[in-house]
Design brief:
five-stranded mixed β-sheet, single chain, OB fold (Dihydrolipoamide Acetyltransferase, E2P)
């Protein structure tokens, strides 16, 4: 039995988030910049009257891409809704045969690697993408 993940892309790489962590997927519209916010925060987006901080996952993961983020994946971290800007949401897929990350991969947010015949999907642990300090900073920004 596998895990259902929302598969998304950043540049040429593909990642998976557990579907139970995903509150909503939305196409990005207007993003309102926040003065003096950290570089990885693109700004605020409005979802049904709520201002939600939008994290630029390309910036956070240090991924280069010429493509503009088109979607936001909304999740909840420590009781706060947060949007992750991604290039494309590809599919919902059951992932099986998830291997632990190789020993040299020491990113806390990588939960596993799925090696498919035609591609590799990196499974992400959503609550580990942001460090505790960053979650506290986000709470202050929108609190």
């Amino acid at each position: 039995m596998g895990f259902q993940d929302v598969i998304f892309s950043l540049g040429s790489e593909e990642y998976g988030l557990p579907i139970e962590a995903v509150q909503e997927i939305t196409r990005l519209a207007e993003v309102h910049p926040i003065p003096k916010a950290p570089d990885y925060i693109k700004g605020l987006i409005s979802i049904r009257g709520h201002a939600i901080p939008l994290i630029d996952l390309r910036q956070k993961f240090a991924i280069q891409s010429d493509h503009e983020s088109e979607y936001a994946i909304i999740i909840e971290i420590d009781g706060n809704l947060v949007g992750f800007a991604v290039d494309e949401v590809k599919e919902v897929r059951t992932l099986e045969n998830i291997s632990p990350p190789p020993p040299l991969v020491n990113s806390a947010f990588i939960g596993g690697i799925v090696n498919l015949p035609d591609r590799i999907i990196i499974q992400v642990i959503p609550e580990r993408i942001l460090e505790d300090r960053e979650v506290q900073d986000l709470s202050r920004l929108v609190g």
